[in-house]
Each structure stands twice: as C-alpha cells, then as structure tokens.
Write a structure and sequence with these properties.
Length: 481
C-alpha cells in the first residue's frame, strides 16, 4: 500500500522533472535530501530507523498527541522495541493531515483534500490508539486523565500535543469569522480553504480598477512555521501579478518583531525580495483588534522616543512607547497568537519561569528533549519549550533523538542523542520559486547542499510541492525518514 502510493507520487514527480530535463536521482541529489532517498527505492528503510538502536526493554509508554510528532515517534518506537507497549491518545481522526500544504490550498495550488491524512492509516497498528483527549497531566503520579476513558497510567510519557491557536485573543475575532469580511488565515485547514475564494475576490476587485489594501499580520508569540505569514503574502502578490492586477493593490506586512527573519542572511534576502516586489512592511506592530464591519485592523505599535541625556552613559535614555494604529483592509491575513494547549499550560510540565512560561510550553532540556524535572517525560514538536523549531522539519530531526533518549533512560542509561536545533522553512516566494531557509541554534544558514541558500530556486519548489509530502506521509510518519 505504502509502496503503491509512493510509486504513484513518484510518477507525478518524474513527469514534472522530465519537463526540466532532470532524472529523479539528479533532482534528489540537487535538492540534497538524503532522507528522501526512499523515493528512489520505496521498500528501502532509511536514516531514521538506522539512527536508533533496537532494544528488548519493556515499559508502558503513553504518547499524548498523534500528529506529526506523536505519530512519527510511535512508529519508530514500535519498530525499535522488541516488546512494544505504546499507547497514543489522540482525538482527531485526521491528526496527521499535512499542515504545510495549507499555504498552497490558500493560494489555489492544491485542493483541501490533497493534505488529508487519516490517522488510522498512519498510527502504527502495533500501538494502542485511544481516541480521546487528555484533560489533565499528573506527572507526580505518572498518569494522565482523559475526557472519556478515565485515568491512564504510564511508565514513560511523551508529550506531542502541538500548539493552540488563540484567535480570540484578538478583540473582535474568532475562528468562525475567518473566511468572512475579507479576513483569512492559513493556520487551520478550513481557514486555508476559505482563504482562496477571499484572495480571488480581492484580486477581482483590484482587476476592476479599485485601489485595494492587503494587510498581513505576525503576532507577538512564538508561532509554528514562522515563514507562513510571509508565504501567503508572496503568493497573494504572485496571483495579483498573474491577473495583471498588482498595480491596484498595496500589500503591507505588520510583524510584531523588528526583522524579517532571525538569521541575518535570510533577513537581508527577504528585504531585497520585498523591495523587488514593491511589498511594504512596518515592524513592531502587533494585531490586537479587528472591526469586521468597518474592515479595520488595530495594531499596538511599539517605538522608542528620546528621553533625557544620561551623563554617566553619555547617551540619551530611550523611552519605550506604545500607540494604537488603525489600518483599513480589503484582505486581511491573520496569524493568530499561539501557545501550548491550555491543558499543558496548566500542568506541572509547563515552564515555571521566563518567557517560555508565558506560552506554557513543556520544560525540556533543549538537546535531549527530556523534561527538566520529570525524568520519565519527554516532549517534542510544536509544544516543546525549546528555542525555535516549531516546524515539521524540526520534528523530523527531533523524533529520532527523543526515541533514542527514551530507550536509553528505559535501559537505565543517560540520554545519548542530541538535537542541534535544526529547522527548515521552505519560504515560498512565488508560484514556482522557494528559498529553502535551513538553520539551527547558531542562527547561521545550515544548507544541506552547497548552493547559495539565500537564492529563490525552482528546484526547492519541486521539493516543496512534490517531494516533501510523500516524504512526510511515507517516510517520517512511518518512522523511517
Ligand atoms: C500553515 C502552516 C504551514 C506550515 N508550513 C510548514 C513548512 O513549510 N515546513 C515545515 O516543516 N513545517 C510547516 N508547518 C509546521 C508543521 O506542520 C508543524 O510544526 C508540525 O505539524 C508539528 O507537529 P506536532 O505533532 O507537534 O503538532 P500537530 O501535528 O499539530 O499534532 C498535535 C496533535 O496533538 C493532538 N492533541 C492536542 N491536544 C491534545 C490533548 N489534550 N490530548 C490528546 N491529543 C491532543 C492534536 O489533536 C493533534 O493531532 C506548517 C504549519 C502550518 C499550520
């Protein structure tokens, strides 16, 4: 079944590559995606399974969340443990749907059904699936409480609940409003599907000669896929250009931060790309309210004013100020504030201090992914309280590390594997071009292949649109890439 599906996808990929005069082997080499080598030979096990040692040790493992992270680590553990006793608690029957595709749905490149993944097809049959939600974590008694199945005890716990989208923290907004009144958001599947018709209305309006305003926000919390708020803006630009309507639209990005990207090389490249496309931006703006009737977005704008002269430091004091700025829109793309799910946030597993405590992220050693206070608890994916790394690309590196370290601890050893902070953002810059921003905690580009990583390339588009999805479904979720 897996081999048949991969085969079908590979045929599609081959057709696309033939147009460019490339073989699949050459394309994979060019893309430098060693982990996708199973696309050359689907029956071959690959890197992830080899990275983790097998073990005869037996203990009860409970995984909370069966999305990208929970499913991948469950699959790897049932492969590596000779006597697996793994339970996955997950309420959503489509928990493994391919979220990175939501941006492509929002721009009319993919259809909503293209990203759907049925949990029953991907959660490993050797694990027990409890279709339920955890409503309380009790790590002091090594148990969780579920909504409908009572308490579940464990020897070892893996927290992989992903994160929570907090639209209602923006005054006047809720999930239901997304898709109406020109307000869009790619961050949940229905929102992404509703974004495409709204974008088309916006383009039609611009095409009719009306001057229109497109506004794109980026909140003041950590978010998953930090590139998505910009990707949707680039795609709106590309669709407007295709329709020969770009000149009538102003597109403006309002990020809370003071840069386009945390890695200077990618920041510089993005600024140039924005300038070349006449896309505008205003830093230090956080979306706090939306008036849907008036189509007005309100931002808190932070800035500094010059205060008194400090004779000791020989410079002026800079005094922080905040003012509210109203911005009219015809098309608004909202990236909501995000946090750990409330149940995690309220639990002893959450960070107790510092900025990570505000988001309620799970308190982990960033390299081993083991909890700092509960040695029998590990965490990974978007809920992990570690720097950066809220992407599927990070999960791909984290799940082998967490699995190996869990097995080490189960065997009474110290964790031996280390996560280096790798993450990847395939920044879609147009229909047909992507800048593949790979980096880690060093905040330096860490390209997998010796090509200038700050350049937009069609080969990364091929990677994004044709290769990453099969790699996710049939490599990562199956615990083998
Ligand atoms: C629009 C968009 C674009 C993206 N683009 C990219 C990209 O280009 N590249 C990339 O690498 N990544 C991208 N990502 C990010 C990527 O999808 C996530 O980082 C990844 O899915 C994280 O996996 P996870 O398992 O931590 O969370 P999820 O996949 O969200 O899974 C979490 C699971 O936990 C379950 N859960 C939650 N609470 C409970 C509970 N109380 N009890 C039981 N289960 C619970 C949920 O139902 C869910 O199924 C994108 C995401 C979005 C939304």
């Amino acid at each position: 079944m897996i081999e048949d599906n991969v085969d079908q996808i590979c045929k599609q990929l081959d057709q696309e590559l033939i147009k460019r005069g490339l073989s699949r082997r050459d394309a994979l080499k060019l893309a430098g995606v060693g982990a996708a080598s199973f696309l050359l030979n689907p029956s071959q096990a690959s890197a992830a399974t080899k990275a983790v040692a097998s073990s005869d040790i037996k203990a009860k493992i409970v995984i909370v969340g069966g999305g990208a992270a929970g499913c991948s680590i469950a699959s790897l553990l049932v492969n590596k443990l000779n006597n697996p006793d793994v339970t996955v608690i997950e309420p959503n029957p489509q928990s493994v749907s391919y979220q990175p595709g939501q941006t492509l749905i929002a721009a009319g490149v993919w259809n909503p059904e293209d990203i759907v993944g049925e949990s029953k097809d991907f959660l490993p049959s050797e694990a027990k699936w409890v279709k339920d939600s955890v409503v309380e974590f009790d790590p002091d008694h090594s148990k969780v409480v579920t909504a409908n199945n009572g308490e579940i005890k464990y020897d070892f716990l893996i927290v992989a609940t992903g994160l929570q989208l907090n639209y209602e923290k923006i005054e006047g907004l809720s999930r239901d409003i997304i898709g109406t009144n020109g307000i869009s958001s790619v961050y949940f599947p229905e929102g992404a599907a509703k974004t495409w018709p709204l974008m088309q209305e916006f383009i039609t309006s611009a095409k009719s000669g009306k001057k229109v305003e497109g506004v794109f926000s980026h909140p003041n919390t950590p978010i998953k896929c930090g590139g998505a708020p910009k990707k949707i803006m680039y795609l709106t630009h590309a669709r407007l250009k295709e329709a020969d309507a770009r000149k009538n639209a102003t597109l403006t990005f309002y990020p809370n931060g003071g840069k386009m990207f945390g890695v200077p090389e990618y920041h510089d490249a993005i600024v140039k790309q924005f300038e070349a496309r006449d896309m505008k931006w205003h830093y230090k703006h956080n979306l706090v309210a939306v008036d849907i009737g008036k189509k007005m977005a309100t931002f808190d704008h932070k800035y500094l004013v010059k205060g008194e002269w400090d004779a000791d430091l020989e410079e002026f004091d800079m005094i922080p100020q905040v003012k509210q700025v109203d911005v009219p829109f015809d098309f608004l793309h909202v990236t909501p504030p995000m946090s750990a799910p409330d149940v995690v946030k309220a639990s002893p597993l959450a960070w107790q201090r510092g900025s990570a405590s505000k988001g309620g992220w799970v308190e982990l050693h960033k390299e081993t992914l083991q909890h700092t206070r509960y040695a029998n608890v590990f965490g990974l994916g978007d809920v992990a309280g570690i720097p950066m790394g809220k992407t599927g690309g990070s999960v791909r590196k984290q799940y082998t590390v967490a699995a190996q370290n869990l097995i080490d601890v189960m065997e009474g050893k110290s964790p031996s594997a280390k996560y280096g902070g790798y993450t990847v953002c395939p920044l879609i810059t147009g229909i047909g071009t992507v800048m593949l921003a790979e980096f880690d905690w060093s905040k330096k580009p860490t390209p997998s292949f010796p090509l200038d990583p700050t350049k937009e390339r069609w080969i990364w588009w091929i990677l994004k649109v044709y290769m990453l999805k099969p790699m996710y479904f049939y490599g990562m979720l199956k615990g083998r890439a």
